[in-house]
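Category: protein sequence paired with discrete backbone structure
Discipline: computational structural biology
Format: plain text, a pair of labelled lines
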Amino acid sequence: MTETTEPDLDPEAAGAFLRAVGLHYDKISAQEVTAHLEATEEHHTPWGITHGGLYSTVIESVASVGASYAVRSEGRFAVGVGNQTDFLLPYVRGRLDVRGTPLQQGRSLQLWLAVITDAAGRPIARGQVRLFNRSLPV
């Protein structure tokens, strides 16, 4: 078993881009990742709704963290190679919850599904992320 260094997933420890997203992880495992964020005017398009890029970022982040946890004991992590996100409903502001689960976990590739819901449980966006399992950089 290879020792790995755990990444700091606190939004305040992230770079400026991920800090602006404001994603907070609630549960992280190789089989499920849950997180939440507050959508605000800072995330809006010029038309006053949440930008789809926020949803794509959140979906890829959740999938990448879960997939990386699945291979971390092997000294590897997962990097996204494809992200297909569907924007289902326009959203203005408030809490958004996200849940990611694996659809397939292979030796080289993983496929994760993530769904973003509002406080009423309505799906706002959903996405699938294909990830490549690779060795940690030395």
User: Anything to note?
Assistant: The chain is about 20% helix and 40% strand. The mean pLDDT is 91. The beta strands are 24-28, 33-39, 76-87, 94-105, 109-117, 123-135.
